[in-house]
């Protein structure tokens, strides 16, 4: 692991299991993404016989890592959103750690320096201290200062995780407060690209989740990156006795008259179970049903990305850059949609992981994400593999051009390593149709599907970010796995609603 | 089981569920939620732990009985005989 100064013992555990030990389980979980792992931990904590099936050799799904030329590289996740200090009350991160019984210290979380939304003529800096954003608004948009305070007040008092919230277009809602279209675009830019399955807009509840997690709580990084988080989850799975099989996904969900009775694995085992929780995505999960389909057609998402990874001997600070994440956009309008060409040249997200307070890398690491057109990449890869390679090289050159604009001299440095992922890579590793990154535009907020005993968690349940994803797994396991054993609990145990239901009855 | 033992059982569970909370100054007559960072997910865990460790079932209509330490002890003591 050349990239990390310290050997953090986060290697892939040897002797992993491929085949299930039993033939019958209380619950089968599809996919060892963040949400699937969290769900499995919760169910196994309370003595449910749980099997977690993962098609790949490592866990994490979209947010994972790989080793190349002695380097350990994170993919997917740029940063952990929802940063919270130890014991900060009511924060999603605090809730998550409590529910999984993980001590805060084990995350070894280090905060960002600061990040920025950069449009052609104006930038908005923000950090884990809201005051920086407020002063930036005052400086760059003095006429919107009071409006922004009102929007903030509205956001802080909004219960974004209630399951009965009406779908409201967020831009309409925000425009009620903010009149300057440029500021609206700048606020939406990071929130859309860090989680929206819709093009150019999002549901207001999701907007609030994202706004709080990015602008109010902010970014952090675990020492060792995403590996540390995955390793903590894997250790917890083992401690609570959840069974995990790798290289063995679910080939088929067996239903009888609309009710789940079992699954067939990739390796051919038929298992009995009354309950399946899937973090594979909504359309992907329904495609596994063997019966004639119940009428339900969640759409396949249209948003996919390329990701470029570059390493240099020089770190961002050697170029005088202290930003952790830069949301770059070279026009006043922010276009968040599938581009007409292979990639969208107008915007990108730059992630500079050396610029968290605790820099445990041995060299400079640069990651750059751009919106991309999945069908075009797919066609290239299938029909003209040589051209596919050349186009990936063009993405690398385009990435260097953008990095150069923030760090003059970057392009003349010796690149010690580079790699480019395309939407087909995303598809291969996540199993998401269309290489979509944030799942289907059609979510199931309460996790239910048209099939009895089949539930969703993760992206297509609709909590966003990795903290949201793990909370999704926890909430769905609580609601459909733990509380369901007491029949009167037909209600809700997800963050918001559950807050009202159980606790209003508990607080006399 | 004595009331003091039941109190200790509840305290042990809260200590595990609420991780970093300081329980030394707990006022037994004041709602737990007002003194500790406990949300409904945590109360679900208290109920689940009672079932797992002590085989005591708390039906949902009885959840209000878990509001304070005093009411917990009063409600759970007969169930733990």
Short description:
The complex is a heterodimer of chains A (508) and B (81). Chain A is of the alpha/beta class and 508 residues long.
Main sheet record of chain A: 7 strands, mixed
The overall average pLDDT of chain A, rounded, is 90
- How many domains is the backbone of chain A divided into? 3
**How many separate helices of chain A?**
14
Classify the fold: give the CATH topology of the largest domain in chain A: FAD/NAD(P)-binding domain
Radius of gyration of chain B: 11 Å
**Domains of chain B, number:** 1
CATH architecture tag of chain B: Orthogonal Bundle
Question: How far do the termini of chain B sit from each other?
Answer: 5 Å
CATH topology of chain B: Non-ribosomal Peptide Synthetase Peptidyl Carrier Protein, Chain A
Structural class by helix and strand composition of chain B: mainly alpha
Note the quaternary state here. heterodimer
CATH architecture assignment name of the largest domain in chain A: 3-Layer(bba) Sandwich
Global structural class of chain A: alpha/beta
Strand tally of chain B, please? 0
Task: Tell me the strand percentage band of chain A.
Answer: 15-25%
Percent helix of chain A: 25-40%
Give an overview in words.
Chain A has 14 helices and 19 strands. Chain A is α/β, with parallel strands linked by helices. In chain A, helix 1 runs parallel beside helix 13. The N and C termini of chain A lie far apart (55 Å). Chain B has one domain: Non-ribosomal Peptide Synthetase Peptidyl Carrier Protein, Chain A. Chain B is globular, with a radius of gyration of 11 Å. Classes of the chains: A alpha/beta (508), B mainly alpha (81). Chains A and B meet through helix 2, helix 13 and helix 14 of A and helix 3 of B.
């Amino acid at each position: 692991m050349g990239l990390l100064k310290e050997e953090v013992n986060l290697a892939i555990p040897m002797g992993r299991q491929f085949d299930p030990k039993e033939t019958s389980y209380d619950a089968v979980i599809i996919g060892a993404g963040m949400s699937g792992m969290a769900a499995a931990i919760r169910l196994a904590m309370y003595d449910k016989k749980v099997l977690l099936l993962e098609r790949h050799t490592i866990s994490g799904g979209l947010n994972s890592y790989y080793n190349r030329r002695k380097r350990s590289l994170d993919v997917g996740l740029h940063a952990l959103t929802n940063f919270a200090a130890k014991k900060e009350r009511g924060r999603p991160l605090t809730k998550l750690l409590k529910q999984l019984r993980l001590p805060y210290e084990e995350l070894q979380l280090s905060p960002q320096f600061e990040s920025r939304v950069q449009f052609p003529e104006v930038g908005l800096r923000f950090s884990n201290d809201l005051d920086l954003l407020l002063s930036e608004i005052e400086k760059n948009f003095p006429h919107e200062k009071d409006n922004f305070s009102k929007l903030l007040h509205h956001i802080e008092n909004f219960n974004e995780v209630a399951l009965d919230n009406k779908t409201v277009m967020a831009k309409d809602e925000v425009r009620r407060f903010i009149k300057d279209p440029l500021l609206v675009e700048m606020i939406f830019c990071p929130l859309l690209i860090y989680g929206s399955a819709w093009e150019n807009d999002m549901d207001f509840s999701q907007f609030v989740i994202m706004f709080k997690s990015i602008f109010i709580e902010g970014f952090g990084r675990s020492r060792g990156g995403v590996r540390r988080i995955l390793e903590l989850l894997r250790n917890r799975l083992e401690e609570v006795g959840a069974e995990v099989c790798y290289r063995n996904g679910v080939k088929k969900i067996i239903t009888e008259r609309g009710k789940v009775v079992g699954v067939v694995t990739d390796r051919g085992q038929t298992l009995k179970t009354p309950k399946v929780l899937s973090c594979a995505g909504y359309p992907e999960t329904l495609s596994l049903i063997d019966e004639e389909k119940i009428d339900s057609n969640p759409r396949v998402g249209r948003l996919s990305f390329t990701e470029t990874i570059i390493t240099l001997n020089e770190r961002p600070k050697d170029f005088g850059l202290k930003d952790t994440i830069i949301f770059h956009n070279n026009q006043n309008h922010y276009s968040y949609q599938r581009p007409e060409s292979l990639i969208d040249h107008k915007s990108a997200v730059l992630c500079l992981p050396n610029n968290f307070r605790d820099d445990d890398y041995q060299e400079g690491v640069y990651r750059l994400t751009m919106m991309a057109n999945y069908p075009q990449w797919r066609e290239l890869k299938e029909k003209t593999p040589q051209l596919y390679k050349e186009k990936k090289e063009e993405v690398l050159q385009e990435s260097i051009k953008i990095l150069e604009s923030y760090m003059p001299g970057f392009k003349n440095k010796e690149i010690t390593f580079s790699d480019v992922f395309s939407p087909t890579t995303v598809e291969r590793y996540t199993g998401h149709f269309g290489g979509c990154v944030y799942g289907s535009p059609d979510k199931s907020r309460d996790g239910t599907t048209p099939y009895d005993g089949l539930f969703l968690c993760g992206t297509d349940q609709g909590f966003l970010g990795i903290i949201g994803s793990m909370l999704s797994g926890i909430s769905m396991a609580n609601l459909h796995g733990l509380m369901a054993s007491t029949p009167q609990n037909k209600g809700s145990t997800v963050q918001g609603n559950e807050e009202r239901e159980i606790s209003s009855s508990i607080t006399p | 089981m004595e009331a003091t033992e039941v109190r200790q059982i509840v305290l042990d569970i809260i200590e595990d569920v609420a991780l970093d909370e300081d329980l030394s100054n707990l006022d037994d007559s004041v709602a737990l939620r007002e003194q500790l960072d406990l949300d409904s997910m945590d109360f679900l865990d208290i109920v689940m732990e009672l079932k797992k460790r002590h085989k005591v079932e708390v039906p949902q209509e009885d959840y209000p009985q878990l509001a304070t330490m005093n009411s917990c002890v009063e409600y759970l003591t007969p169930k733990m005989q």
